[in-house]
Amino acid sequence: LGNGFIILINCINLVKRQKLSLADCILTGLAISRISQLWVILCDSFLLVLWPHLYAIDKLTKVVNIFWILSNHLATWFATCLSVFYFFKVANFSHGCFTWLRWRIRSVVLVLLLGSLSLLFLNSESIYTFNHISTNSYKIYARNSTWSSDVSETLYLHHLIAFNFINLIPFLLSLTSLLLLSLSLMRHIRNLQLNPSSKDLSTEAHKRAMKMVMFFLFLFIIHVSSILLTDWVFLKLQGHLVRLLVVLTSTVFPSKPF
């Protein structure tokens, strides 16, 4: 509901003012990608409950994974861009590079989004690897057979390395934004102590921005951990009930449908 409300309000503002601020554009993109992600999970849940045998079809699992890749990738990077945006808008540094980037924040956000597309291919390869594992696991489970655990764990290790590398970049960008916001706040408080007569206009803005970034990092860690944990559980405990449990978990912390 919250994501839909954001989209509705921003659409109304767009009609009235004929333009949107950069922050509203990022929030709208984030809301759309999150709603898309939840719809993918919902459709995946229906397929799992009503037609679980369809998971043995490679083409179907590829389509589901493609939609999940796009929605999850965009949601992560829109949230990262929002963290970077708040950093440049709230923090105060006298360095020339910071000032130059601050005046070009639209270009910075655009470069981040376009640059993230280069990671989309690697992300696709990672999901394709696990898609191969899950499809074969279901086929073998349906035949009451067994598959070599060494093969599945080796493929999972490759998936794990690629997935962690992909998510390390947005995590580090947001973490850097948080640390620099903290540094900017400490310098601001020190200046207030040295000049008691100066007005305190940005302390609260610093705190709000830091809370937002910290909240995103906390949820991001939970999100990534839930993906890795559910993937591993699925490999170790293959079966229809396990798959259903994984999907239900993903509705709480949206992660990859299988």
Automatic annotation (TrEMBL):
Its main location: membrane. InterPro entries: TAS2R. It is a multi-pass membrane protein. GO terms for cellular component: membrane. The chain crosses the membrane at residues 66-88, 108-128, 156-181, 213-235. It comes from the Eukaryota. One of its GO terms (molecular function) is bitter taste receptor activity. Keywords: G-protein coupled receptor, Membrane, Receptor, Sensory transduction, Taste, Transducer, Transmembrane, Transmembrane helix. It is found in: Membrane. Belongs to the G-protein coupled receptor T2R family. This is Taste receptor 67. It comes from Alces alces. The gene is T2R67.
